[in-house]
Amino acid sequence: MSVDTIIIARHGKPALSRKVQLTWREYRDWWKQYDIGGLAEKQKIPKKLRAWAEKADVVISSSLRRARESAELASGRNPDFVYDDLIEAALPPPHLGQMKFRPKTWGTWSRIVWYWGWPDGMESHGDARARANAMCDVLASHAKGGKIVYVSAHGWFNRMLKGSLKKRGWKCVSQNGDLHWSHRRFERPTGYGE
């Protein structure tokens, strides 16, 4: 039986340093720099991930630079498709005056308040969920007919894609966490639901 395959990978390690202490306002500026920045040099791509990317019929990337560069490094070619709708979900930091924390701490708190309904003028959790659902339909269309689709995107949004894909009958057959270069591999019988 033929299967359609979607491999969703997190981008590689970005060049921007996380070894800084920031206020919530500074974190917002730091995140803007993170979004426009590229990858750190001399990335080691997991062998399994590189093999999957090189074998993929279709390579897809988020429009953010770190994801595009990761797709190119893993697959050895430019992405076939680049989608704005694959960018990371919003991270609105809570307003905590002049308190300073590392980006990882701000990221955790930002994700919690965002998840519980505080987008602070950014994309809401509900809007991000709708975007993930729509992207799953796009990815499934690319995989139709027994194709292998490799997707280079972002940590939290990849988790959202996982939930949406599972609701559409995709089975997660391999995954290894949420760190840089992590992956989730999904399969579904070709012609599912037709």
Ends apart, CA distance between termini: 15 Å
Q: Record the strand order, biggest sheet.
A: 3-2-4-1-6-5
Domains (count): 1
Q: What's the story with the biggest beta sheet? A: 6 strands, mixed
The CATH topology is given as: Rossmann fold
> Rough shape?
globular
Give the number of helices: 6
Helix content percent band: 40-55%
What is the gyration radius calculated from CA atoms? 17 Å
How many beta-strand runs?
Answer: 6
Instruction: Tell me the β content.
Output: 15-25%
Supply database-style keywords.
6 strands; Rossmann fold; single chain; 194 residues; alpha/beta
Q: Can you walk me through this structure?
A:
By secondary structure, the chain is an alpha/beta fold. It has a single domain (3-189), classed as 3-Layer(aba) Sandwich (Rossmann fold), CATH 3.40.50. The chain has 6 helices and 6 strands. It has helices at residues 24-36, 47-55, 65-75, 103-115, 125-143, 155-167, and strands spanning 3-10, 58-62, 81-83, 148-153, 171-175, 183-189. Helix 5 crosses helix 6 (155-167). The mean pLDDT is 97.
